Here is the input.
Amino acid sequence: MRRILGLVLLALGLAWAQGDKLKACFIYVGPIGDAGWTYAHDQGRKKAEAALPWLETRYVESVPEAQALPVIDRFVKEGCQVIFATSFGYMEAVLEAAKKYPNVIFAHATGIKRAPNVATYMADFYQVYYLNGLAAGALSKTGKVGYVAAFPIPEVKRHINAFTLGVRAVNPKAQVLVRWINAWYDPAKAREATEALLSQGADVFAFTEDTPTVIQTAAKKGAYSFGHYTPMLKFAPNHVVSGQIVHWDVIYIDFLKRVKEGVYTAKNLENVDYFWLLQHKAVEMGADYGVPINPKHVPLLQKAQMTVGGKKVSVYDRIMALMKDMQSPKPTFDPFTGPIQDRKGVVRIPAGKKATLQELLSMEWAAPGVVGDWPGEPK
Here is the structure.
């Protein structure tokens, strides 16, 4: 009887009335133990559930991107009122399901298409990648920095470009060697790509992949690296310099509160897009929580110099100053401020202009210094 009543309420769009628990369900592309992307989302889910006593959650892990729709069907049958789809490749399934279930609220991580009952959200790292690029440029002795990349989509390209701009701000002749593995979670491919980049001379590494494999493989050869999504200092304490750390809970809690309060409904999400950065505390630069740079490497970065406005400054001081600025409510610095040309010499961001959100979300060009295949590169 209770289930029947729940279904009736759901059909009427009233299932999260006062006093009821709100049921939010999560679709994960990888295993929750990946130490990266999916682990970070699951930590966000747990923190949201702990912070919101009226919330109950469930999840399904390791859902291939082509298999999302059957999982959504199951979630809806089980009474999920809000469904978070946490991979870019779930986009078409989410949009199809949104039409099929107009009273269910969907939120799509890294998505670029919305609907009345579909919001999009992203805790973006491009600022943090730029800061880590500064450190990488200072630490590389060969002038070759390796980047193991998942899929050639705008999100990943934006992050590689920001990282490369940082590297070249310190060492204008440095190269960022890119290898695509076409997988979010594939430790074997990540290890193979890292070993190939090591053989090309890369001595510092960054990556977009959901495991610590790049860090562990690079450390065996004494190469520096930067963690991704979660604190990864523990995987190579002597070689991890810093990294990108996400706080998905900040977005999940805000979104779910607004659903509970009736601010967000299944009819008004077409313009709801979270693109939260350092200033929103959705991301941080860190080898660990609250540790922007591994203390073992601070002296090297303090000693390294770069030129800013015609003056020599320490790379460490530059990183700290820019991080403080970008954490402020109204940052004055943005890595994608023109003039910026792509690696073919085409002006992509004019002098004095900042890339718009749309330009960031649709970025396909490659920054100067990026070396390697770049599927979809504009002519």
Summary: The first helix runs from residue 2 to 11. Confidence is low (pLDDT under 50) at residues 1-16.
